[in-house]
Amino acid sequence: MATSLKNLSEYSSKNVGDVSKKCFGIAVAEWNNEITEALLQGAYSTLQKHGAKTENIIVRSVAGSFELPLASQWLAQREDIDAVIAIGCIIQGETRHFDFIAQAVANGIMQVGLKYNKPVIFGVLTTNNLEQARERAGGKHGNKGDEAAITAIKMLFWDNE
Ligand code: RBF
After folding, report:
1. Could you say which of 21, 49, 60, 97 is catalytic?
2. What are phi and psi of 126, to 5 degrees?
3. Is residue 78 in some structural domain?
4. Domain total for the chain?
5. How confident is the model at residue 111 (pLDDT cuts 50, 70, 90)?
6. Residue 141's domain is classified under what CATH number?
7. Atom of ligand 1 at shortest distance to CA of 36?
8. pTM of the model
9. For 64-77, what is each residue's pLDDT tens digit?
C-alpha cells in the first residue's frame, strides 16, 4: 500500500492503470456549499492530476446529502461511467436530523455500489461543526475530496496493486 492509513492526498499513481480511459461521475450536495465546493474542487483536480480527461468527469448537483444516494444511482446506472464519487457535508445541528441523514446517506451510497458493482465513493463529511468541516476541506486535515478521488482510482485499479 503506497499510502498512509489516514491520508490519501499524496497518493502516487505509479501502480494504477490508464486513468485517461476511465469516466467518473460526481454527485455533489449544495447544502453547506462552502465546504462541498472545496471538496468538489479537490476531487476534480485530483482526478485530472492522475490523468482523467475533463470530458470524462461528469458533475451533477443535488440539494442536500440526503439526495446523494439517488443521484449516485442515476450516475452509476450509466454504462459509460466507471466510478461515482458522492460529495456532501452534514453538520451536527440541534436536532436529530444529523443522525438520520448521515446513516441514510452512508447506507444508501454503499447500496448503490453493491447494486451496480461499481465503486461509489463516500465523500461526505460528517462533522460536529463548520470549523471541523473546513479543516477537512482544504484545511489542516487536508481535503477529503482529494482522498475520495484517489479512492475511486484505487478501486478501479485494485487488481494492479
Ligand atoms: N443536507 C446536508 O447535506 N447537510 C446538512 O447538514 C443538512 N442538514 C439538514 C438539517 C435539516 C433540519 C434538514 C431538514 C435538512 C438538512 N439537510 C442537510 C438537507 C437534506 O440533505 C435534504 O436535502 C432535505 O432534507 C430534502 O430531502
Report:
1. 97
2. -130, 100
3. yes
4. 1
5. very high
6. 3.40.50.960
7. 3
8. 0.93
9. 999 999 999 999 99
